[in-house]
């Protein structure tokens, strides 16, 4: 799919300078920037949807872990006393 992109002269110059420094084409720099932006925004949206689903599940069931329970579990990571996460409770 061919797409054109209009950018102002200042940004065009910045892209060209960066491309020259990185020994890449301006086209490559712009594609990389768009790809990284899209991936970051998709990850942000996925995180948001997971949070909303978790909130809905909590409202429906009331099952949860307290912050202290999570911290205690995380503090065991990488130690000889590493434990599995405890089960959720009401």
Record keyword descriptors for this entry.
90 residues, mainly alpha
Class based on secondary structure composition and strand pairing: mainly alpha
Inertia-based shape: elongated
DSSP, total strands: 0
What low-confidence regions span 5 or more consecutive residues with pLDDT below 50? none
What is the succession of H and E elements?
HHH
Global Rg = 23 Å
- What characterizes the major β-sheet? none
How far the N terminus sits from the C terminus, by CA atoms, comes to 52 Å
Helical content class: 55-70%
β-strand percent reads: under 5%
What's the tally of helices?
3
Mean pLDDT over all positions: 95
Topology:
Elements: H1 9-22, H2 26-61, H3 67-74
Helix pairs in contact: 1-2
Description of the molecule:
By secondary structure, the chain is mostly helical. It has a domain at 9-63. It has 3 helices and no strands. The protein has helices at residues 9-22, 26-61, 67-74. Helix 1 (9-22) crosses helix 2 (26-61). The longest helix is centred in the middle third of the chain and has 36 residues, at 26-61. The chain is elongated. The model has no long low-confidence stretch (mean pLDDT 95). InterPro entries: Arc_rbn_hlx_hlx, CopG, Ribbon_hlx_hlx. This is Putative transcriptional regulator. Residues 2-41 form the Ribbon-helix-helix protein CopG domain. It holds the Pfam family RHH_1.
What's this, in brief?
With 90 residues, this protein is mainly alpha-helical. It has helices at 9-22, 26-61, 67-74.
